[in-house]
Amino acid sequence: MKILGIETSCDETAAAIVQDGRTILSNVINSQIDIHKIYGGVVPEVAARSHIEVINPVINQALTDAHLTWDDIDAIAATYAPGLVGSLLIGTLAARTLAILKNKPLYPIHHIQAHVYANFLNEKTPEFPILALIVSGGHSQLMLFKSHTDYEILGQTCDDAVGEAFDKVAKIIGLPYPGGPSIAETAKQGDPNTYKLPKAKVSGKYDFSFSGLKTAVLRAVQREVGVDITFPSNDLAGLLNDTQRANFAASFQKIAVETLIDKTQQAFQDYSPKSVVIAGGVAANSELRRMLSERLQIDISYPQIELCTDNAAMVACLGYYQSQNEQPTDPFNIEVLPSLSLK
Ligand code: KG4
Ligand code: ZN
Fold this sequence. Notes:
Blueprint: E1 2-7, E2 12-19, E3 23-31, H1 33-37, H2 44-65, E4 75-81, H3 85-101, E5 106-110, H4 111-117, E6 130-135, E7 140-145, E8 151-156, H5 162-173, H6 179-187, H7 211-225, H8 242-271, E9 275-279, H9 286-295, H10 305-308, H11 313-325
Parallel strand pairs: 1-4, 4-5, 6-9
Antiparallel strand pairs: 1-2, 2-3, 6-7, 7-8
Bound molecules: 5'-O-[(R)-(carboxyoxy)(hydroxy)phosphoryl]adenosine and zinc ion.
């Protein structure tokens, strides 16, 4: 079964064709990072306009790359939640129109669940029950999947998502957007024990908090460069030298990653899952991978780096499993749900 996946929930316009939820036949990603870099973050209106410009060429490219025509496509799967409303609308409208015109079944996909399914594109597929650490620019969650249809959220962030914290700290210390990759790269030159940053204590056993850590970095930078809290935060980065910047990147990354791993380890001990997977853009972080493999007594297979950040192969993959368990949706009636939780 060949499924065309469409993903436009944030700032990547993506289309991919996946066979039987396993084999990627094509995977086209048009990233808007260069456009949003100028503003230091994603501008929703700009993102939506950019999706409109490229959605048709991206879908056509996915067919061309896979050497397929519409006759070969068995179904369409498109992200309808959560994300930026204008962005979600472009992908779902394209998917609805194509489903009607080409007479294909349509499966609505939850973006966060799709991130988890990037792991089903690995050589070795995960086994249920699966403990999933989902870490992206918009989400930080620990979930337990008992099957493809039975899953629960064990814990989540009380405030900022961890990817958001990477992005905000990068801005404070003067590293480019997106902050995750630039902090990870810069941290390699730094000493993670230079600045003592706090690990947030939250009441939920598997919950996280990252906004205090971001503020702690801000205060530590102010102290380091000798200004008080009234000093404009946009001007702070210019006062740091490269060594201080690398040490802040490493010190922040260490605590952010440890926070995630402490809770994952707790859930691992409590639920004894058969597999542990990580998903979402922050899953690309090599320090997170290294520490997780060190702390958990289980063989973890990670998604390929390009399948960690937003892509449509994961959407098509989840579409396949949905097609095995659920009826397709009515293409005339699908709504986008920008803040829909997975459970
Ligand atoms: O999953 P994703 O592409 O988009 C959302 O659904 O949010 O995740 C993007 C997030 C950004 O916050 C980015 O800074 C972060 O993932 N990220 C990373 C790394 N690569 C991307 N964070 C830490 N280390 C990385 N190597
Ligand atoms: Zn994402």
